[in-house]
Amino acid sequence: MLEDLYPGLGSNPAGAARKIFQRWVNYEKDKQMGFTEEADQMKRLTRRMTACTACALRSNCDSVFYGDQHVRSNLMIVGSHPESEDMEHSQLFYGAAGRVLFETLELVGAVKVLVWDPLTYVLQEDGVFITTAVKCSPASGKHPHVNEIKACQRWLGQQIGIVKPRVIVAMGNTALATLTGRPLTTCRISRERGAMIVAPDKKTFIMPTWDPGYVVHRSEKGGSGGEMARNELLFDLKAAWRAACQVG
Ligand code: SF4
Predict the structure, then answer these.
(1) What is the pLDDT of residue 148?
(2) How many helices (H) and strands (E) does the chain have?
(3) Measured between alpha carbons, how far is 67 from 135 in angstroms, rounded to an integer?
(4) The domain 2-245: what is its CATH number?
């Protein structure tokens, strides 16, 4: 019954409760803003994603991660895929990478984090929709296979059609490949980050940048690489947020 009303809840009770609360708050706000139809479209889409068995990742995953934010957002953030700990807590970007992402978005002024632990409750100031290119989590420490990335591509396209963001941040090569339709092997975030490009639909801009998981990884290695990557992520998100607020 609950799963029918709020699809994709997962098996963690605290995470499911947080999702229900956040979706209810956002649904009410969407309704106030006149986006009830879009909210219903997103709910129907989530039901279809939850039932998807188009690739082998489904066998490892009891929850799809579609984003629990307002259905109309100026800025969309697209990570690669949910990690195992996201599955465990039924929340995207739950761990250290999420901390880096939300701290940076808060510095930019795009979100306000109300509670960090144990539940990260994020209030969007002006609409930021956070999701991933691949909706199901691969086994711990693994990356999605190129066939799995391709199989999942259609879902993100449909989400974009509902959210209609002005700017999409592609965090990492998988997100960039999914958003541009280019082969994964041709995507190099290290070379392409920081320069906004026009999306294939010619209506949206894409800002390629580091995956926050990479920033964490660089910081753990020591030296100045972690701080440099963090500053670059901040620089890129700031530019993306500014453009999302100004375009059109
Ligand atoms: Fe379907 Fe995507 Fe999950 Fe594969 S990863 S089963 S394509 S929702």
Answers:
(1) 95
(2) 10, 7
(3) 10
(4) 3.40.470.10
CA 230 to ligand 1 centroid distance, Å: 30
**Atom number, ligand 1, closest to the C-alpha of residue 151:** 7
| Dist CA 139 CA 21 (whole Å) | 28
- In the numeric block, which tokens belong to residue 225? 């690489």
Taking a C-beta distance cutoff of 8 angstroms, is the pair 204, 244 a contact? no
Cβ 169 under 6 angstroms from ligand 1: no
- Mean pLDDT, the chain, whole residue set: 86
- The CA distances from residue 55 to 44, 153, 173, in Å, are 20, 12, 20
Cut 0.85: pTM above it: yes
Q: β-strands 121-124, 128-132: how paired?
A: unpaired
Q: Which tokens sit at 208?
A: 């390629």
Task: Identify each DSSP E strand in 24-149 by its residue range.
Answer: 75-79, 111-115, 121-124, 128-132
For the chain, the domains span 2-245
pLDDT tens digits for range 8-54: 666 677 767 767 776 777 777 777 778 888 888 988 898 899 889 99
Q: How do beta strands 167-171 and 75-79 pair? A: parallel
**In the chain, what is the straight-line distance between the N-terminal and C-terminal CA atoms, in Å?**
41
Dihedral sign from CA coordinates of 105, 134, 181, 226: positive
Output Rg (C-alpha) for the chain, integer angstroms: 17
Kindly state the average pLDDT of the residues 209-213.
96
**Atom 5, ligand 1: which residue's CA is nearest?**
136
